[in-house]
Every structure is written in structure tokens, then in C-alpha cells.
Amino acid sequence: MIDDQRIYPLFLDIARRNQIETYCYMHYKFSKYVVSTYNYEFDNILVWSEYFKKKLIKINPKYKNKNFYYSSIVTKKNEIFNTQKRGLLYIFDLGFDFKVFKKINDCLDKSKYKLFLKFKPQNHINNEYQKFCNQNNIIFFKNENLDYILNNYEISFFAAPISSLLLESTLYNCVPIKIKTANDFFDDTIKDKVVKVLNPNKISKINQFLDNIIKNRHQIINTINKKVWSVNEININKNIENFCKKFNS
Questions:
Q1: How far is residue 209 from each of residues 118, 154, 205, 233, measured CA to CA in Å?
Q2: Could you read off the pLDDT of 121-145 as tens digits, one per residue?
Q3: How far is CA 49 from CA 225, 238, 247, in A?
């Protein structure tokens, strides 16, 4: 079942009492703040990569004795790194600060970079945000998925305070930029050096910040991609196909 901390403890308790084997697939990053994660374990779990397996075991060492499988992750776009792609896609998610977003827009050199805003699908959108985007020629997306956005617009960066899409950004050949906040829920990505960090107090220098990333974009993406999405050769055959076979057996 889905790794959802709101409901899965109930089902795991029932499964244990009845000796039912359990299966889970990862759908969001693991966190020490989710009580269920370090108090309950599935027997079989499909994770995105070795990086996330290590994260889970660190939170709950009992997972060392569980069966891990891995998603078949491939990059979404080809390996051609177009240095002319200068779009900054801001992800509306946890920790969104409208003042910070407006400051980024004010400081961004529009002759070099273009700002976009992606809202969460099906969520109510504040009219003030839409009005600001329309007044400042900022293209925003309500329900469009990433494949559509990246196939139709030249995006080079994903930016957000907290969003799992930052971890996925290198799969789309984009650089993840974490906006630093007081909420440390996503700060392990800073420690792991799998995001570039933008301090809100230094937004006035955002153009220099982006210029430096562009110069090293290829190397940054490859380094993060290898760290976050690689799977050990020993485990390469323990993929999603075998997970499904075991689940259906």
C-alpha cells in the first residue's frame, strides 16, 4: 500500500496480527519528523534509489532486515545541456513565501532569466498571486504536469523552500535551488549537497547566483543525479518489475 503516514500504521497493525506480508512504494521523501516512519516497517518496500534506502534505514534501523526494491528511474530529457535555457520554475509548495517570490521577480534580470510559477494541481489559488503574475508577465501553471511544462518552456532551474520536485529536478536536466527557511524539514538536502541554496537575504544577488550555476550546470546536474538516483549494481535486478512479481505471487 501507499506509504501514507496518516493511515498505514492501522493496516500494519492488522497485518502483523494476521501474519500478512506487507508491501509499500515510496511516494515522498522520508523524514525523521514522521512518527510512523520510525515506529513501523513494511516487509517489502519500493524506493526511488539507494540514496532514499539509506535515508529510511537511518530513520528506522529495523529496515536493514527488510526487502528493498528500486524504481526504474531514467532521465526525462536528453543529455544536451542548452545554456540558453534560462527559465526559473518556482514550485508552489510547503513554505511558500509570497514576499520572497516577489523579491525574486524584482531582482531578476529579465533580459537573461524568466520566472515561472507552478501551483499545486487542483488546489485553490490565491487571487492575489494570480493577479501579481498577470501584472508582471509571469507565466503560471495550475494543472499542467512537468512533462508538458518542460516540453513547452525553456526551464533550467527548479526553486522552492520545500518540495520533493527539487529532488526530481536533475531527472529533467534542471538544477534544484532550495530557498532557505526557518523550517528545517528539507535541510538534510543541504547537508547532503544535493541542492543549491539561496538565502532570502541574498536575493539581491540572484543573477550572480544563477550565472555561476549556468557555468557549471552540466557538472552540478551529473553530480546530484548520480548521488540521488543511482542504484547499486548488486541491486539492479531488484527493480519495480520484480517487486510487482513478488507482490502478485
A1: 21, 19, 6, 36
A2: 877 888 999 999 999 999 999 989 8
A3: 11, 11, 19
Torsion angles phi and psi, residue 245, rounded to 5: -60, -45
Residue written as grid cell 547499486: 232
Alpha-carbon gap, residue 201 to 204, rounded angstroms: 8
Determine how β-strand 175-179 pairs with β-strand 155-160: parallel
| 29 within 8 A of 58, measured Cβ to Cβ | no
Q: For the chain, percent helix, then strand, then coil, each to nearest 5?
A: 45, 15, 40
Q: Which amino acid is at 101?
A: F
pLDDT tier, 82 (very low <50, low <70, confident <90, very high otherwise): low
pLDDT at 75: 56
Residue-wise pLDDT for 4-52, tens only, equals 677 888 899 999 999 999 998 888 888 877 878 888 999 999 999 999 9
DSSP helix/strand/coil, 124: coil
Mean pLDDT in residue range 99-107: 96
For 201, residues 6+ apart whose C-beta sits below 8 A from its C-beta are none
Structural domains of the chain in order of their starting residue, each with its CATH number: 8-73+231-248 (no CATH), 87-227 (3.40.50.2000)
CB 109 within 8 A of CB 207: yes
* Proportion of the chain above pLDDT 70, given as a percent: 94
Tracing cell 526525462 back to the chain, one arrives at 76
DSSP 61: G
